[in-house]
Amino acid sequence: MTDLVRVPPRPRSGPRHAGPPRGFVARAAALTAGLTAAGSALGLVRDQVIARLFGAGAASDAFLVAWTVPELAATVLIEDAMALLLVPAFSAALAKGGAHALVRGTLPRIAALLAAATAGLYAAAPLVVRLLAPGLADPRLAVTCTRLTAATLLTFGLAGYLSAALRAHHRFLPPAAIYVAYNAAIITTLLAFHARWGVRAAAAGVAIGGATMALVQLPAFFRMLRRPPLPAAHPVAELPRAHVPGPADAPGPADAPGSRAPSRRVGAAVGVGVVVPVVVFAVERQAQVLAERFFAAGLPAGAISHLNYAQKIAQLPMVLSLMVCTVTFPVVARALAAGDRERARQRVERDLTLACVLVLLGTAYVVACAPQIVQALFQRGAFDAADTAATAAVMRVYALGLLGQSLVGALIRAYFSAGRPTWYPVAAMSAGLGLTVVTDAAAVTAWGAYGVAAGNAAGISLTAALLLRGLPARAVPVRVRALASAVSRYVLAAAAATGAGWCTTRLLPSSAPAALVAAACCLTVPLAFAAAAAAVGAPVRSLPHAA
Predict the structure, then answer these.
(1) Which residues contact 523 (CB under 8 A, 6 or more apart)?
(2) DSSP state of 78
(3) Transmembrane ranges (predicted)?
(4) SS3 breakdown of the chain: % helix, strand, coil, rounded to 5?
(5) On the CB side of 355, how many CA atoms lie within 13 Å of its CA?
(6) Is 301 in a helix, a strand, or coil?
């Protein structure tokens, strides 16, 4: 294994507050992994129920157009923008004794803004549908579903705020459980009301699921607030804060003990200079899906559904690969707030290595036995063999961009962990989005849904390359060449594992059940990956040290 994983142990001397307790990352990652797996499993069940009840046709396309709004809201308000803004802000607040002032200054304003946005979306639903999917033959069903899902702007925003606050306090159980609650609510609503409401039951389930995401976190959040702020003499208060330019930085009597200056300085961490780049980046990242559905709307009915099912399955390895980064984001933020750039570098390099290994292993599995995976998961009810073949082919194209997706998710946390204004990620994402749009426009006529998926993979891969190149100078001084060398070896291992998985699918009888073939690949692909990684000098057995 390269020296990226063999990071020298950090000296034990130093302040006790420099990092979380020994074993914290491993325990928190295990907890997050378990609940993430449960949420992903329920997400698959949700998609299976939708596929079984509505197949891949005009009704499912209408719902998926409306689902674009919750997907965008989840990216901006839960997964990216809200977390990237508030985890560093809460970390800075904790460094000054407590987060009570930050909550009082931000939560009411954010809730009011989200409520206004929800009302605006409800009123503008017809216009939104025309903009998202101008090729729909009958947009009325999509408009109805969009109005039902509009509530997610408020509920997802509140859920994202609570998640960021709890993660900054190293409380990972409630935030990790939100997708379990979300998908369980959708499935329950679908099964209870699909006969009466049709595909509108799925949209109603999304609205109800959004509310449950906030509700499951409220008890832990209230317990967090009831804890008294840390006294000024507490060691954590001695941590130097991450610099955020603003009027509160000027020295003067406001910095006297007992003044309200610390609250103002913490509030500056979520000022306009930091908020705007994060929000723009998150919107641009989700705009890849907007572009995908815009171009696919003019294809035959079912194309949007095939793209959606393929993306949902293909992105599962990416979601699992980022669970460690989710846990360590507050750790990196605290390290940067304390001025410990070396510790932040070690943590980010380990995270990137682990994320790449996990997503490449998943990519090999997806590419090797895509038809068997789709058949085992979805081919029943209204979802027939033709839908399986189309979805599997699209999924293999999507998989080519999974490494880029995972790297973008891991790298962006490093860029925004210091709470400083930066526009470089926006520029990188703009370049990737531009390539996606150009590729989609050029390829959709000749290649249909495959061309749209190829544009997605090309654009996100370009963004990942640009973010990795700019990280040392703008955020955390990672060793890009060493990291690229390590990742290239794992790419070779993934190629060998893909070949082994493909051979497995060909050697088994054609009459074998799809689930059996997929299970066999679950054995051969990881074994081939480990063997190939060891052969090229990147043994997988060294990876547990990175956790």
Answers:
(1) none
(2) I
(3) 24-42, 49-69, 81-103, 110-129, 141-164, 176-195, 201-222, 266-283, 313-332, 352-374, 394-416, 423-443, 449-468, 480-502, 514-538
(4) 80, 0, 20
(5) 29
(6) coil
Question: Token pair for residue 364?
Answer: 């090999």
Contacts of range 167-171, beta carbons closer than 8 Å, 24 or more positions apart: 167/83, 167/87, 167/326, 167/329, 167/330, 168/86, 168/87, 168/90, 168/91, 168/94, 168/99, 168/330, 168/333, 169/90, 169/94, 169/99, 169/224, 170/20, 170/24, 170/28, 170/330, 171/220, 171/224
Q: Is the pLDDT of residue 253 over 70?
A: no
Write the pLDDT tens digit of every residue in 406-437. 999 888 888 877 656 678 999 999 999 999 99
Q: Which of 529, 535, 520, 523 is nearest to 499 (CA)?
A: 529
Task: State residue 122 phi and psi, 5-degree precision.
Answer: -60, -45
**Locus of tokens 């605290």:** 334
| CA dist., res. 260 & res. 265, Å (int) | 9
Instruction: Give CA–CA dist 180/43, Å, rounded.
Output: 8
Radius of gyration of the chain (CA): 23
What kind and span of H or E run contains 223? helix 218-226
Nearest to 81 by CA among 326, 215, 252, 274: 274
Q: Is 487 helix (H, G, I), strand (E, B) or coil?
A: helix
Q: What is the pLDDT of residues 87-145, one digit of tens each?
A: 777 877 776 767 788 888 889 999 999 999 999 999 999 999 988 888 777 889 999 99
Q: Which tokens sit at 111?
A: 């809730």
Q: What is the DSSP letter of 19?
A: S
Residue with tokens 């908020």: 275
Q: Rounded distance, CA 520 to CA 501, Å?
A: 8
Spatial neighbors of 473 by CB under 8 A, at least 6 apart, are none
Alpha carbon distance 168, 163 (integer Å): 8
**Nearest of 222, 271, 245 to residue 89 by alpha carbon:** 271
Quote the CA–CA distance of 277 and 272 in Å, as a whole number: 9
Residue with tokens 């101008």: 134
Q: How far apart are CA 337 and CA 334, in angstroms?
A: 5
How high is the pLDDT of residue 133?
A: 84
Average pLDDT over residues 381-388: 88
Q: How many CA atoms lie within 13 A of 400 on its CB side?
A: 15
DSSP 438: H
